[in-house]
Amino acid sequence: MRSILGVLTMLLALVIVGVVVKKQLIAPPTDGSQATSSPPPSPQQTQQQYKQALDAALQAAQQKNDRANDEK
Questions:
Q1: Could you give the number of structural domains in the chain?
Q2: What predicted TM-score, i.e. pTM, was given to this entire model?
């Protein structure tokens, strides 16, 4: 049971990181339709977003694990 939960936690973290990466890779339109484009995030901001997403996934998995242990 614990190994299954560990695998699910890792998959959840991978999905979250994948979504963040996909958002980062989407380029703004280059046809000039967007007059004021915001500057791209710095590497530190991107790293912080990854860390926050991973921390949130791990915390959710820990809470789920705690609830499962409490039910036993």
A1: 1
A2: 0.44
Side chain identity at residue 21, one-letter code:
V
pLDDT digits (tens, 9 = 90+) for 3-55: 888 889 999 999 999 888 888 888 666 665 555 567 888 989 999 999 999 99
Host domain of residue 49: 44-72
With respect to residue 15, please indicate whether it lies within any of the assigned structural domains.
no
Is residue 49 a part of any domain in this protein? yes
Under 8 Å between Cβ of 5 and 60: no
